[in-house]
Amino acid sequence: MKILCCVKRVPAPGAKINITADGQDVDAAHLGFTTSPHEECAVEGAVQLIEEHGGEVTVMTLGTSDAEEQLRYAVSVGAHHAVLVDAGDNTWDPQRIAAALTAAIQDVESANGSDGTAEPFDLILFGNESADSGGFQVGIRVAHALGRPIVQGIKGIEIGDDAIIARREIDGGFEVYELPRPAVLGVKEGLNLPRYPTMKGRLASKKVEIGTVGASADAGGQARLRLHRPEEALSETVILGTGPEAAAAVVDVLDELGVL
Ligand SMILES: Cc1cc2nc3c(=O)[nH]c(=O)nc-3n(C[C@H](O)[C@H](O)[C@H](O)COP(=O)(O)OP(=O)(O)OC[C@H]3O[C@@H](n4cnc5c(N)ncnc54)[C@H](O)[C@@H]3O)c2cc1C
Questions:
Q1: Which sign does the torsion angle of CA 31, 152, 167, 46 carry?
Q2: How far is the CA of 7 from the centre of ligand 1 (A)?
């Protein structure tokens, strides 16, 4: 079985995000980068399925050469192959990214096949949405372009004889989907608990040869005007008093909050 995971390089959560002076980009000078928790679960899910059923996991990202860091991390936790879709210094809207990823996937599937027949990935995993721009659309666009079924919001995957069984969490239970192979899923954090890299994994990630595919696709319809950082919510500490004398003021505050 062959599984592909698409991952995106995004700023590490928890960092203070600054914007460049022209308002067009995130200032990456003091930032660490990672992949979104959804995509970490996608890679872990793929590795677990391969451990159970046999096969190989490929990870793919569209980005600059810096994004090799995220590909190598995926290899350190069990992926076998890594492909960088080289973004160069073009501007990339979601439509264009999806078109370039689709073309790259078709290239890899043709190279995997024989006698001129492409060998599709049995399963392609995306994160439900990216951790930075959260457009909720790249996976859906790719699945549509490839003519394959997709379900988003997945928190459970099983491999049947000819089908993929996917479970989506809803209020009070799960919806269960059966998709014919090849299929595409958008997965959510909670699918599993991603493992940490082992020493063996780290060594493999240093040695892995990263395949590079040129990214070509026409610009789509979405253009960035500028990035804007919302005003920070200020928090204030008020000292109500000291010792037993403060008790009445505390009761007033609790009353105001409606907890009494
Ligand atoms: C190199 C680069 C340059 C960019 N330049 C611009 C720009 O000039 N102007 C602008 O407005 N925006 C730019 N962007 C942002 C870009 O428009 C969005 O990141 C992109 O459209 C994806 O949308 P999203 O993050 O909302 O993804 P979503 O649709 O939320 O992502 C869903 C899932 O798709 C997959 N995915 C998303 N992006 C990638 C990727 N790059 N590689 C592999 N898998 C992916 C992941 O699995 C993700 O969880 C750039 C992004 C990149 C990577």
A1: negative
A2: 10
Mean of the per-residue pLDDT values of the chain: 93
CATH of region 2-257, choose from 3.40.50.720, 3.40.50.620, 3.30.70.100, 1.10.1040.10: 3.40.50.620
pLDDT in tens, 168-220: 999 999 999 999 999 999 999 999 999 999 999 999 999 999 999 988 888 88
Asked if residue 127 has its Cβ within 6 Å of ligand 1, the reply is yes
Which of the listed residues 70, 85, 90, 92 should we mutate to test ligand 1's pocket, taking the one with most ligand atoms within 8 A of CB?
Answer: 92
Q: Is the CB of 126 under 6 A from ligand 1?
A: yes
Count each helix (H run) and each strand (E run) in the chain, helices first. 6, 11
Q: Taking the domains of the chain in order of start, what are their residue ranges? A: 2-257
Percent of all residues in the chain with a pLDDT value above 90, rounded to a whole number:
73
- Ligand 1 centroid from CA 8, angstroms: 7
Helix (H, G, I), strand (E, B) or coil at 248: helix
Q: Is the CB of 153 under 6 A from ligand 1?
A: no
Q: What gap in Å lies between CA 37 and CA 191, rounded to an integer?
A: 10
Single pTM value for the model: 0.89
